[in-house]
Design a protein that fits this description.
The chain is mostly beta strands. It has a single domain (about 10-280), classed as Jelly Rolls. The protein has helices at about 10-15, 120-125, 235-240; strands spanning about 20-25, 30, 45, 60, 65-70, 80, 80-85, 90, 95-100, 115-120, 130-145, 150-160, 170, 185, 190-200, 200-205, 210-215, 225, 260-265, 270-280. Strands 1, 4, 5, 9, 15, 16, 17, 18 and 20 form a nine-stranded antiparallel sheet that branches. Strands 6, 10, 11, 12, 13, 14 and 19 form a seven-stranded antiparallel sheet that branches. It has a two-stranded parallel ribbon with strand order 2-3.
């Protein structure tokens, strides 16, 4: 690093002032291009779930910007911060993760959306789990098939029971479904997307502005908030009856014990540009 990185205000207020991951993409030297899985890289090209590794045809760096356009990237499983092959890399519990990202409006058919997100380490390395957390800092979705883009930040508590119960997913859908008809539209300019993840709490920010938040605790139903409105939003079942049984008491609390591996992902038909990625912790 040749310059001082300012601490984002939400991170500073939460006491997260230690910079634990920082990549300005000045070159591909921070990416394990060879796919060997050796320690010392920020990003790895080998991927979990027995997926084929990314190659240099899937990304490049120019003018301190990462251009990501993987040919095959289901579920936004692109460049991870951890290597399954080498069992090395970056994972974290609690912190302020942010990235400066730009995407073009979709112009045709695509398979996979641009995303900056994290999945729990146990799932990433294919260990057995009953609950698995997921933190989506950014998902870009197209609305109404007209090229209009929306910004979505989401948390998931994937529940895979072993006693015959149905698999469920406690899912925060605050702005994904447009609660109170409020959707967060974005354009094709550069924006900074971030999530403050702390015990029992996640808050999403775009360009430093609070977008929405979630609170959760053992024995309680999760609560979701839009912007800085102190009143909790209605439960998902009240606004989307088709999504019954999505939420339960204690939902999302797996996030208090999980560690997350981060991804940058998109698709060849809907690529993504990344200026930098940073993670702050206490």
């Amino acid at each position: 690093m040749t310059h001082t990185v300012p601490i984002p205000q939400p991170a500073a207020e939460a006491g997260m002032t230690r910079l634990v991951l920082c990549d300005d993409f000045e070159s591909t030297e921070t990416i394990d291009v060879s796919g060997e899985g050796k320690a010392g890289y920020t990003w790895y090209t080998d991927r979990p779930y027995n997926m084929a590794a990314l190659t240099q045809e899937d990304f490049y760096v120019k003018n301190s910007v990462l251009y990501l356009k993987p040919r095959v990237c289901p579920a936004a499983i692109g460049l991870p911060t951890y290597s399954c092959k080498g069992e090395t890399g970056f994972k974290y519990r609690f912190g302020y993760a942010e990235a400066r990202i730009r995407v073009d409006k979709p112009t045709g058919k695509y398979n996979g959306v641009p995303a900056f997100w994290g999945i729990c380490y146990e799932d990433f390395v294919s260990r057995e789990w009953v609950h698995a957390g997921e933190l989506d800092i950014l998902e870009v979705n197209e609305l109404d098939n007209d090229g209009t883009m929306s910004y979505t930040g989401t948390i998931h508590d994937h529940f895979r029971p072993g006693n015959g119960e149905k698999q469920r997913a406690c899912t925060n859908l605050v702005n994904a479904l447009g609660y109170r008809n409020k959707r967060d539209y974005i354009d094709d300019n550069w924006h900074t997307y971030a999530a403050l993840w702390d015990e029992g709490y996640v808050a999403w920010y775009m360009d430093g502005k609070l977008m929405h938040a979630a609170r959760y605790a053992e024995g309680e139903l999760p609560q979701y908030f839009y912007r800085d409105d102190p009143a909790p939003l209605p439960r998902i079942e009240a606004t989307q009856p088709a999504l019954q049984n999505r939420t339960w008491k204690g939902g999302h609390t797996i996030l208090n014990t999980d560690e997350m591996v981060l991804f940058l992902g998109c698709n060849y038909e809907w690529p993504m540009e990344v200026d930098w990625v940073r993670v702050w912790q206490r």
